[in-house]
Design a protein that fits this description.
With 578 residues, this protein is α+β, with helices and mostly antiparallel strands. The longest helix has 28 residues, at 291-318. Residues 1-118 form the Creatinase N-terminal domain.
Length: 578
């Protein structure tokens, strides 16, 4: 930095695809600082080094940054680049800020340039990590594979046709795609390049008469490349994307998603090309699941429900008799999932959190933090599976024995909020922030709130976090569409004591149409018992009690054929009406 006269260096948590989950090659923040959380930004000046992250990671960051030279800077707003304002205050006029622009989204690059330039601060692209990162992991070369049209419910050529129709609407000649889940959906391709998400490192460039997939040559067989060619897709080496962007013809227009393309690659596009910054068309198309995807997801939920039920029974049978810890419980749950047909792996790192650890919404047990689970208080388990035919995400908070009055009330209010969210009926055009408010109201009535969103979209054998819809307080103008799969997961977190979250996945369905509008609601997809042992029934309205009893009855009816007699008897008791 001194040699280049750089005053501040920014290290984002990203890769050239602006991914949430990163291949090991791009885990720059853990390498530089030791912090392993999935959200954060490092900023290094000549006299300061800080990690900006949100409330989910305050405790984790405090521990991992100890003696690292980095200080924790607590963000006020999740995902907000608050370090930009800090840089403006900290740096002198005419200072230089650097970052690896391959790790910067177009949106963030534009924002940085705009907000820093007001003070004459310039932005440069520098990679200071590669020269000092000994034995840096190589980019993965794992084999990828194609899923057939019968499994995907739609051919590659028809998906490309749908994207091209959107390009016409935007008057775009080309479309550059970097986001791995969009590419996986578009080309019916899956892989193992990134933990938890079955995606493949790749780029795509699409015009009205041609599509090119840029991917490591060894990932696909010749037969698979031929199959893609028949769908109108040429396969070229991963590194060729830079040349292809530079060779986009003059005076055409290119659609790019500013949130999901990197700043460095956007700058390779010739200056004569008109850039249209819009959401990837595939993001909205993929969010609305077709009938095959929904049917297969229901099958995945059945398999997942069997695994969850066996885990819950195992937990009840063993607690207080053999030593159970957060890590051993997570391993046991994975074992039950792995027994299910079509299981690929976890869809995210299991949150296995006992007592006070439950108050950390994104807690992940480690060898250092692993805690014994005892026959008292609450145990929160948030987990999910990737199956060949769907992706699951479920949270259950499990009463382990004696509980406090506060725990019982909090549990009931969270359950009440989850039921209200899952049973909401709303007019077509309703957005996620409205569902968020409906879900929070039972907690707000008691002056309780939670700091994370109420729900996120979920992919089909894809990313467990998927847009464009989101149920959170931000006024994101994305309507809740038919066929979308979204989580509903309110919570209560009392630091040092306990945390409670209950989560089901739902898909949007039509309810009725009348003179007022089309009205939508939710079909609950998750099939696993919700514990009722500590529910305070008087805090629930009759409709909520009816929903809970009907849900648990349905769980028993759907899962019991796949269980043995002992498991079936346990589930019958666990799903008794209150």
């Amino acid at each position: 930095m001194k040699a280049d006269r750089v005053d501040a260096y920014i290290i984002p948590s990203a890769d050239p695809h602006i991914s949430e989950y990163l291949p090991k090659h791009y885990k720059c923040i853990p390498f530089a600082s030791g912090f392993t959380g999935s959200a954060g930004t490092l900023v290094i000046t000549h006299d300061f080094a800080g990690l900006w992250t949100d409330f989910r990671y305050f405790e984790q960051a405090g521990e991992q940054l100890n003696d690292s030279g980095f200080e924790l800077v607590k963000q006020k707003i999740q995902h907000a680049p608050e370090y930009i304002q800090w840089l403006n205050q900290k740096l002198d006029k005419g200072a230089v800020v650097a970052t690896d622009e391959k790790l910067l989204s177009v949106l963030l690059g534009d924002l940085l340039t705009q907000q820093l330039s007001a003070k004459g601060i310039s932005l440069q692209s520098k990679d200071y990590l590669s020269p000092i990162w000994e034995n840096r992991p190589e980019l993965p070369e794992n084999k990828a594979f194609l899923i057939d049209e019968e499994q995907a419910g739609q051919s590659v050529s028809s998906k490309l046709a749908a994207v091209r129709a959107e390009l016409l609407n935007h008057q775009a000649d080309y479309h550059f795609v970097s986001s791995l889940d969009d590419i996986a959906w578009l080309f019916n391709i899956r892989g193992t390049d990134v933990s938890f998400n079955p995606v493949v490192l790749s780029f795509a460039l699409i015009s009205h008469d041609h599509a090119t997939l840029f991917i490591h040559p060894g990932k696909l067989t010749e037969e698979e490349k031929l199959a893609l060619l028949k769908s109108g897709t040429e396969v070229l080496p991963y590194e060729e994307i830079e040349r292809a962007l530079k060779q986009i013809p003059a005076n055409v227009s290119v659609l790019i998603d500013p949130k999901r393309n990197c700043y460095a690659y956007a700058k390779l596009i010739p200056a004569s090309v008109r850039i249209i910054k819009e959401l990837n068309p595939s993001t909205s198309l993929k969010a609305v699941k077709n009938e095959v995807e929904l049917s297969n997801t229901r099958e995945a939920m059945l398999k997942d429900g069997v695994a969850i039920t066996r885990f819950l029974k195992w937990l009840e049978d063993n607690i207080g008799k053999t030593k159970v810890t957060e890590l051993s419980a997570a391993a046991e749950l994975r074992k039950y999932r792995a027994e299910q047909d079509g299981f690929i792996g976890d869809s995210f790192n299991t949150i296995s959190a006992y007592k006070a650890h439950g108050a950390l919404p994104h807690y992940a047990p480690s060898a250092e933090s692993d805690t014994e689970v005892k026959a008292e208080s609450l145990f929160l388990v948030d987990s999910g599976g990737q199956y060949f035919y769907g992706t699951t995400d479920i949270t259950r908070t499990i009463p382990m024995g004696e509980t406090t009055a506060q725990e019982r009330k909090d549990y009931t209010l969270v359950l009440k909020g989850m039921i209200e969210g899952c049973s909401a009926i709303f007019p077509k055009g309703t957005c996620g922030y409205q569902i968020d408010a409906i879900t929070r109201k039972p907690l707000w009535d008691h002056a309780i709130n939670y700091g994370h969103g109420t729900g996120h979209g979920v992919g089909y054998f894809l990313n467990v976090h998927e847009g464009p819809q989101v149920f959170n307080p931000t006024n994101t103008p994305v309507p809740v569409e038919l066929g979308m799969i979204t989580s509903v997961e309110p919570g209560v977190y009392r630091p040092g004591r306990h945390g409670i979250r209950i989560e089901n996945l739902v898909t949007t369905i039509a309810i009725q149409e009348n003179e007022f509008n089309e009205f939508y609601g939710f079909e609950t997809l998750t099939i696993a018992p919700i514990s009722t042992s500590i529910v305070i029934k008087d805090l629930l309205e009759k409709a909520q009690v009816d929903w809970l009893n009907a849900y648990n009855t349905s769980v028993f009816e759907k899962l019991s054929p796949a269980l043995n007699d002992e498991e079936r008897q346990w589930l019958k008791e666990a799903t008794k009406a209150i």
